[in-house]
Amino acid sequence: MDSAWTTTVLLVPCVVLLTAGFFYLYGVIMGLLSNKSVRNKVVVITDALSGLGKECAGVFHKGGARLILCGKNWEKLEELADDLANASDPTVTFPPKLVLLDFADMDSMPEAIAEILDCYGCLDIIIFNSSMKVKAPAQTLSLEVDKLLMDNNYFGPVTLAKGVLPSMISRRSGHLLLVNSIQGRLAVPFRSTYAASKHAVQAFFDCLRAEVEEYGISVSTISHNFISCSASGAPVTSKSLWSLLYTKKPLGVSPDEAAAEIVKTLNNKRKEVVIAPSLPKMAIYARSFFPNVFFAVIGAGVKNAAIAAEM
Which spans of this chain does the record mark as coiled coil (predicted)? Predict the structure, then answer.
């Protein structure tokens, strides 16, 4: 027994070290493969001027992708393209192509889609990361604001997806990746129209996934609680469950973390990813399996916020 016990004591640390070493090597190998997975791929970023868009542009540009950077401001797009060119080796990268794209201007969408398709004649990956946010009581929002939100968060991405699908279907290849809010899965107060637009676009891409799978086209959705400017933030002062459910700091996801998750999702072709702390993830399941509890917690959060505002 003593000999067996001694052997066990010696073996356990060795097994732990070997296992840890295996996972470390696996992470290193996958990281190297990730950098090569987008080489020569035509990648569209619908909002390259956002924090996440710039981070993705940097990652994919260094990885050798043929980037098509979209945004509302031509001067800022040119600045971003110059920054990417100055920070990379021109012998292993491609100069980005720029396209003005504004989901709020639906009349300009046909021209923008045609321009995107003309850049390289085909598309491999589209990252739908554009978004418009509004926080206000439902009764204070005008119908014009509602329509603007739906154009930016639903009709715009859907129109672009429909416009490029024939090209992808003909090539039997492509990957559509929607960066969506966690409010496409559940909703919290004072974001009625925003949550409605996110639910709508989530449902569209969920339906589309099944429709285009036979053509070899992948559809992925990544739901986050909030993309912050950095990974760190000020401590949360409010202790209510409702405030923790959708707090920007410190529970937000940094742009580099979100970009890394996007690369991983593209490589693994995962259909659905949620990047959020444990509490928002628990809220998603609570909404499905314990709806009355979920509604009670959300309602209590509104009452607590109203009381705090009056004090």
Answer: none
